[in-house]
Amino acid sequence: MESFKSNKCPATHLLEAYITDRLSQQSYKQKITTHLNHCPQCSIAVQELSKFYQIFQDELNHCVSNSVFKLLNQLEHERINHLRILLRPLQPMNGHKSMNFQAELITPSTLNQQLTFDDIRLEKDEILLRAIQSRTTLETTLYLFAHNEKLYRNINFQLKSGGKKFCSDREGKINLGKFNLNLLNKEIITIAWENNQ
After folding, report:
1. Cβ neighbourhood burial of 27 (10 Å; 0-12, 13-18, 19+)
2. In the chain, which end has fewer C-beta atoms inside a 10 angstrom radius, N or C?
């Protein structure tokens, strides 16, 4: 291991590997642990790197933030369509394992005069879909958000009764492939979370 000799501090990439448990050999882990017991400078670096990775992990477990979509619109507005679709529950949750939602495409005309797209307020059990679609290929990705994580994490998203099902990931992302988003307007969507973890 050229980047780490017993009389020198380990390289930053080795400290990162140590923190993220990616060191291939147990002997390297032991050498770094021993070194950290005697080197205040590396101990501080490890603490700072640990904080960074903790923040990074926390971010990975959250929905994409509103500011990311704003930035995406600014940078890619000529290549993508960014649409919002509100899903309103047709019944209260009340312990159900799946629910039907009415989809409503949000356009400037459906918003109150004083509200912008970024001011949309979700009621309990509503789901906001942000759809990012390539203007050239029509490849579409949905990003779901709800106040109740159960409604977007690892859910089954079904268009029409008996229609195609899509699964979201832990952050509420669903790849639809080529898709006509106008088909979702006023459509009934079934969200099921029986396998939700």
Report:
1. exposed
2. C
